[in-house]
Design a protein that fits this description.
Distance between the termini: 45 Å
Oligomer: single chain
Helix content: 25-40%
Structural class: alpha/beta
Shape: elongated
Strand content: 25-35%
Radius of gyration: 23 Å
Order of helices and strands: HEHEEEEH
Strand order of the largest sheet: 2-1-3-4-5
Largest sheet: 5 strands, mixed
């Protein structure tokens, strides 16, 4: 008992010193300097793909904006934010992936591609224009209409996560 009391006192003192330090760790991975970066603006990402799935644009735009609103302290503004995201959904395509002995596809791949332009006014070295893509394979015996809602939901989540990580999660 006599050894435990001094040990507890040391632990409490160490905790007091550590708690007075400002250590910031965010589980969402965002590393934003809120002293210089306070706002974000989004342009609507239209579908510019030859094959169009109409709910895709609204779903993508909503989830992209929600990700930044939910996981950062950035204030969303209509235009000219400290961070700016714009672009387009440039691809929505199907392609056969595995061919059976009878020359028919057994697996089909659905791919979504999004071109993103990112502007970081406080630090222009972080600006970029690049394409992000996600895909899911499904059994070719299934109709696209039967699986596309679920597959698009998964791919949009993946794309939004990738874009978020590329823009504000500087590891």
């Amino acid at each position: 008992m006599k050894r435990i009391v001094p040990l507890l006192i040391c632990l409490v003192a160490a905790f007091g010193l550590l708690s007075s330090c400002k250590i910031t760790y965010k589980l969402n991975g965002a590393s934003i300097d809120y002293a210089t970066t306070k706002t974000i603006s989004f342009e609507t990402f239209p579908i510019k793909a030859s094959l169009v799935y109409s709910p895709l644009a609204a779903n993508f735009n909503d989830k992209l904006q929600a990700k930044y609103v939910d996981q950062t302290k950035l204030q969303q503004v209509r235009q000219d934010g400290d961070l700016q995201l714009s672009g387009a959904i440039t691809g929505y395509s199907l392609s056969p992936q595995a061919v059976k002995s009878d020359a028919y596809a057994s697996v089909t791949r659905l791919t979504i591609r999004v071109k993103v332009k990112f502007v970081c006014k406080p630090n222009s070295t972080q600006n970029f224009e690049r394409e992000f893509s996600a895909y899911r394979d499904f059994d070719a015996t299934m109709l696209l209409t039967d699986v596309q809602d679920a597959l698009c939901e998964e791919m949009v989540d993946e794309l939004v996560e990738s874009i978020f990580n590329a823009t504000v999660a500087n590891w």
